[in-house]
Specification:
The protein is of the alpha/beta class and 311 residues long. It is 24% helix and 27% strand. The structure holds NADPH dihydro-nicotinamide-adenine-dinucleotide phosphate.
Length: 311
Amino acid sequence: MEKIKLLIIGSGPAGYTAAIYAGRANLSPVLIEGMQPGGQLTTTTEVENFPGFPDGIDANELMENMRSQAERFGCKFIMSAVERADFSSAPYRLWLDDDTEIIADSVIIATGASAKYLGLPDEQKYMGMGVSACATCDGFFYRKKVVAVVGGGDTACEEAHYLSGLANKVYLIVRKPYLRASQIMQERVLNNDKIDVLLETNTLGLYGENGVEGAHVVYKKGEPGEKQYDLPIDGFFLAIGHRPNSDVFKPWIETDEIGYIKTKDGSPCTSIPGIYAAGDVADPHYRQAIIAAGSGAKAAMEAEKYLSSLK
Ligand code: NDP
């Protein structure tokens, strides 16, 4: 394949926004869409907090709109995944899953993160019908309802706290006899009347006719005093961590201990000139479509500057 100026990897809000900006800057970007075109957002239903849509917008429609906007400015799309990369020197080389080689002067990594799930078949069954991995995205649908959050870290406590502002009752399902979260987050949860912390509790499955109506849980699994019971809930939120999709790039690019790509001073610049990271793959904190879109725009602007410096 001939050398391209800019390769964008990932088709979430970060990747598509980078493509819109890069296309308008005449960089003729090529975007690798990966296995889940549209990214994590496509696992939710309606998006109500993306500015510009006062009545909300269907998540898939929002992503298709972003894609069309990128296409309008000349972005080319490849439905494939990046398997391997060689960033030892510029121009950079990457290989797709069918072994096609791409040579690019600059690269924007916008591969996102994947929420971790427990691995229960019921999570798939009720996906978008009561199961969610993002309280900020879906919490609003559970106003005055009863929900459970799984996890005992900062994310779980933060999500439980956020949901307690909407739902009537929040159960925090924690597998250990203690919370792992920071002291301040623990206190926030323990002092909240609407949150019940269920320690030493694991989820066995979910039940419900047309959506989640409850969870089968077990207290002290495999120990004396084990007790199985059903917990009636309307929503089941996973908050057991995220995994940034950075494995392919780790041999070349600096990441933190979880795998989030390290960038410089709030910019999308990585440790390698001409290689940028945007969106959730570099963001352990905010994980929002609007933030990812903003960082995609920044990455394209940095790539434009870098590419002009090569001339
Ligand atoms: P963590 O890895 O810190 O916590 C994950 C939690 O999920 C743990 O309680 C863990 O249990 C539990 N868990 C993992 N797997 C399972 C499973 N299969 N079944 C049941 N429970 C499970 O992830 P977070 O997303 O909470 O945080 C990631 C990082 O981001 C942390 O460094 C955190 O401090 C930071 N963060 C900071 C925030 C802030 O400062 N406001 C907000 C959000 C995140 P166990 O303890 O038993 O392993």
